[in-house]
Amino acid sequence: MVASQTELVVLAVLNVRPATGYAVRAVVHEQLSAFWGESFGQIYPAIARLKDAGLVAAKAGERPGSATYSLTAAGRDRLRELLQTPPQVARPRNGTLLRLFFGEALGPDACAELVRATKERAEQQLVELAAARAGVEAERDSGETSDAHTRYWLMTIAAGERTAAAAVAWAEETLAELAVMEPTSGTAAG
Amino acid sequence: MVASQTELVVLAVLNVRPATGYAVRAVVHEQLSAFWGESFGQIYPAIARLKDAGLVAAKAGERPGSATYSLTAAGRDRLRELLQTPPQVARPRNGTLLRLFFGEALGPDACAELVRATKERAEQQLVELAAARAGVEAERDSGETSDAHTRYWLMTIAAGERTAAAAVAWAEETLAELAVMEPTSGTAAG
DNA sequence: CTAAGCATGTAAGATGTTACATGATTAT
DNA sequence: ATAATCATGTAACATCTTACATGCTTAG
User: Fold this and answer.
1) pLDDT single digits (tens) A113-132
2) Please, what sign has the CA dihedral across residues A44, A49, A53, A55?
3) Across all strands, nucleotide nearest A45 (CA–C1')
4) Whole-prediction pTM value?
């Protein structure tokens, strides 16, 4: 009875609207990518398990060989159950900060390169999140999505924006400090 | 030749000073925990592989059955090589934001609970990071650690502080918005 | 006609967690 | 004494990525 996190996402996405496995993954990529990721290698086996457990039902899809899945009543119950389990905090793995911590063996120039890359990723993310925000707000105003769902969605976008803005501010501060450090060690040393 | 990230951390920690496997894990827990995690189940096999590859050398430790490991010349070369590889960005997995995104099925009260937990974790982290900052600065002033390493260490602490502060600000904003939402759906609905 | 996108799945291998098993040393 | 900490390792299991294999449909 230990459901994977992937099963939770699949149930949650299918609860919004029935979809093919491919479309489930598209939703995850397009709407959740700032805080969640899944690959086909996880999604298809997860759907198969959920089908075996009677939590989702398959209808023949529009194309031959494809299937559109939707939640059963048991699936909706299970979804609520899973949503109420405390989120498991994932082990952090920030390769940039790891390298920066051991920056003495790497040198200030290479470290600055890493921080610049972080800054660019964060700025890119701010652009994407602004676009997502505009899209969600337009959808809300056109009445295509429930108002409550729109609000929750915007809260997750706000979280991404805060985090990305903090990353940009940190990167700028850190680049300034790296700029005044002499290259006394590391591979870039003269 | 695909070295795991764990091998990189082990090499980096042993480059600072020779240590037992147990002590390597203690360093990771005490100094890197804000952005990195490792368990014994990873560290011991990683050390065994590094020893087989001639990248670390074992000396008999102070206790019977224990060993103190240090980098060989090949190990130092390999470390520099690994530090220069681009950091692989880990797949994001934020269980709180996932639940919040599907908050309509959960209800505003349960969502507020999740956000409060996030806020408390972030505040706790700010306390821990402030203590770490004080400890590092004291070490620097006493001359126990190289000045360069201290600076890099403080940069990683600053990253954690920025991120945690952003999380607190987001949580407060989000709690205010959740407070004005009516419980029209979700398990907590009346 | 051909490339891109839609669609489903499997298999191998890497990675990671947790629990278990064992035992020495140090502090209370 | 006895609990906590130091110390090493294995085994089972879960998870995840990547590549592979296949084929339909739509747009250029």
Assistant:
1) 999 999 999 999 999 999 99
2) negative
3) C9
4) 0.94
